[in-house]
Each structure stands twice: as structure tokens, then as C-alpha cells.
UniProtKB/TrEMBL annotation:
This is Flagellar basal-body rod protein FlgC. The basal body constitutes a major portion of the flagellar organelle and consists of four rings (L,P,S, and M) mounted on a central rod. The rod consists of about 26 subunits of FlgG in the distal portion, and FlgB, FlgC and FlgF are thought to build up the proximal portion of the rod with about 6 subunits each. Its main location: other. Residues 103-138 form the Flagellar basal-body/hook protein C-terminal domain. Pfam families: Flg_bb_rod (PF00460), Flg_bbr_C (PF06429). GO terms for cellular component: bacterial-type flagellum basal body, rod. Belongs to the flagella basal body rod proteins family. Residues 9-32 form the Flagellar basal body rod protein N-terminal domain. InterPro entries: Flag_bb_rod_N, Flagellar_basal_body_rod_CS, Flg_bb/hook_C_dom, FlgC. Keywords: Bacterial flagellum, Cell projection, Cilium, Flagellum. It comes from Pseudomonas deceptionensis. The lineage of its organism: Bacteria, Pseudomonadati, Pseudomonadota, Gammaproteobacteria, Pseudomonadales.
Amino acid sequence: MAFDSIYKIAGSAMNAQTVRLNTVASNLANTDSAAGSAKDVYQARKPVFAAMYENNQLTRGAGMGGAHVQVMDVVVSGREAKKRYEPDHPLADRTGSVFYPDINEIEEMTDMMSATRSFETGVEVLNRIKSMQQGLLKLGEA
């Protein structure tokens, strides 16, 4: 596998984790976003990743070639809104109910830590490849 393929793979992994971190940040930022109805409530987002093999097929076990990560979509969770009785809230409906997104902060924080570690791993791969290339250049100096 050529160095440029490794750069492409590590870069795609870092890009995918950046998308993942963006969705986590959006979800955490909107945890307490109120809505006047269940249909208007913020829905948590989750990215969908797929392995794209060098032959551009979504198949498993594709030979010696590498596979980069493709962000296929960002989907909404589809969880039901949490209904709270808050009659003094400006967005309360006729019954005094306000709706909030069903976002699990612990899940989101765990997802954030995992995405951060995966991103750091991609950086480490790039640093190792850079070091290997520098070593190859030093061989020519001797």
C-alpha cells in the first residue's frame, strides 16, 4: 500500500470523526431546547459511516487494499419527545406541556470521548507515516 493511500484512509477517518463530534456537539447544545409540540422538538443526530474499499464497493474482505471511511448520511434518532408540565413556560401548549428532546447526555459524552480517541489515532497514524518517510529520506543521505 502506498503512502498516499494511508494518508487518504487516515484523513477520511479524521473527517468522519469530525462529523461525529459535530453531531455530538449539536445534540448536547440542544438538550434543553424546548418546543411547543412534539413534532417541533429537536431530534438528536447520528452519523452513518460505511467502509469504502479501493474497488469502490461496499463489500467485506476485499483483498489487500485499504478501505477509507465514507460518511453516508446524518440521521435523526426518532426518539419520542419528553413531555413536561411547565404551565409558565412561554412555549407551553393549552395543557401547560412543553416538549424536550430525548437526549442521553451520558451516551453523548461517551460518543464524544470515543470520537476524540479515534481522531487522535488518525493523527498518530499520520505522524508515524511522516516519521517513516523522513527515515527513508535519511537513508539516501548516507
